[in-house]
Amino acid sequence: APAGMVMVIHKKYFTKEGLLIIFAIYNILNSEYSQIMYIFELIAEQRIREAMERGEFDNLPGMGKPLPKDELDNVPPELRMAYKILKNAGIVPEEVELRKEIYSLQQLIDACYDDEEMKVLVHKLNAKQLKYNILMEQKGIHVTDYEYRKKIMEKLSK
Predict the structure, then answer these.
(1) Kindly report the CA angle at 67 between 64 and 72, in degrees rounded to 5?
(2) Is the pLDDT score of 120 beyond 90?
């Protein structure tokens, strides 16, 4: 947010619609803010160039090593701020929550010895995987879970 601006978001706005409105407002403010920030970027770049010429960046720790991966590398740049806001608010995207639930169910199935309980867990796992695949398809991401696909093909071929 622009310097000096504090955004306090009440819990009642933590709905999809509320967050979309907040992000729209943020984008409007950000576009005006970016025009002002351009001047500061130019000044900062000039000062960095001058420091480089003076050798102030020589022999820094980690020099020549790759930067650590950012957790948002796979998120499009225009969505990164939204993801950070959601993360800071304790809201997890539905696909991440589903992947966690799928992993937990797989762990429970691996540790399960009761046949009836295992059937219930497998049914829940299949439902979660189907929901995850549908969600990802809606987002234009094709998920290929080979184990899940293999199970479906086995059931269809019977």
Answers:
(1) 165
(2) yes
**The one-letter amino acid at 37:** M
Report how far residue 155's alpha carbon sits from residue 144's, in angstroms, rounded to the nearest whole number: 17
Residue 62 Cα to chain centre, angstroms: 27
Tokens 């130019």 sit at which residue? 42
The pLDDT value recorded for residue 3 is 43
Give CA torsion, residues 83, 85, 89, 93, to 10 deg: -20
DSSP H or E stretch at residue 141: none
Give the mean model confidence (pLDDT) for residues 26-33: 66
User: How far, in Å, are 22, 23, 82, 153 from residue 136 at the CA level?
Assistant: 24, 22, 18, 20
- C-alpha span between 85 and 118 (Å, rounded): 38
The structure tokens listed for 148 are 């899940």
């090593």: which residue's tokens?
65
Question: HSE of 76 in the Cβ direction (CA atoms, 13 Å)?
Answer: 3
Q: How far is 27 from 104, CA to CA, in rounded Å? A: 37
